[in-house]
Specification:
The protein is an alpha/beta fold. Helix 8 links the parallel strand 4 and strand 5. The chain is globular. Helices cover about 55% and strands about 10% of the residues. Bound molecules: CO-5-methoxybenzimidazolylcobamide.
Amino acid sequence: MLGEELMEAIIEGRIDDTPDITRALLDDAVSPKEIMDKYMIPAMQVVGEKFEEQEYFVPEVLVAAHAMQASLALVEPLLAQSDERPTGKVVIGTVKGDLHEIGKNIVAMMLQGAGFQVNNLGVDVSSEAFVAAVEEIDADILGMSSLLTTAMRSMQDTIDMLLEAGIRERIKVIVGGAAITPEFARRIGADVYCEDANEAVKVARELCS
Ligand code: B1M
């Protein structure tokens, strides 16, 4: 079965195979939504579970996420043409002064794999850029990542700026990264602290359900 083949290729991170299998599924008239919901999202769920169980580590998660993205690149434009709505819209980035991107990219790719429309702003993102992106796409969730104790304070500035712009009430703020603790998240008025990518996906699903 092609669908199972796609799942296997994503889980095993076979980036050279996923586009061909995805094309074959589309040629078989499997809808982009079905490819996403029945094969891509469950495959990334398996990857997340393997990561939680420490069967997979960062490199395996990254190659799986890239294999998934190679498939998503074919499916996404078709989804955009149809009326299918994403699970939710997310703006994500690493905060100002911080250039660590690996964990944030894993979170972004896992969210994409879970059907979210993700606007990944990259690293060293200013509060102004976060707020502008949230307004521009009318995001449901803002995700901020920081691994540096010297940079994480700017999360507070961004939340203050959301308040000033009058949009704090209609957006959920998720924070994470090695520097962040649940206590810090509470103190700055974030909605949720997430320890890892899998938790971020679970929380984002709950917030958008
Ligand atoms: Co830097 N670095 N680094 N570094 N680096 C750390 C973070 C550090 C802990 C190392 C140490 O001293 N032990 C330390 C920070 C100390 C602190 O502030 N408390 C540190 C430092 C000091 C620095 C520099 C200042 C070093 C220097 O130049 N003197 C410098 C800063 C540059 C800058 O950002 N301005 C620097 C630079 C670098 C590199 C460029 C060399 C490289 C980054 C490469 C890159 O990202 N492209 C790097 C790396 C690789 C690390 C370590 C070794 C690994 C980070 C990583 O990728 N982990 C790190 C030590 C460590 O953490 N053990 C270290 C793997 C990744 C999957 O985990 O990012 O935690 P993580 O993401 C997880 C979760 O945290 C969570 O989910 C992810 C997946 O499960 N998560 C979220 C992350 N974001 C989330 C967002 C969410 C939800 C969950 O919602 C939005």
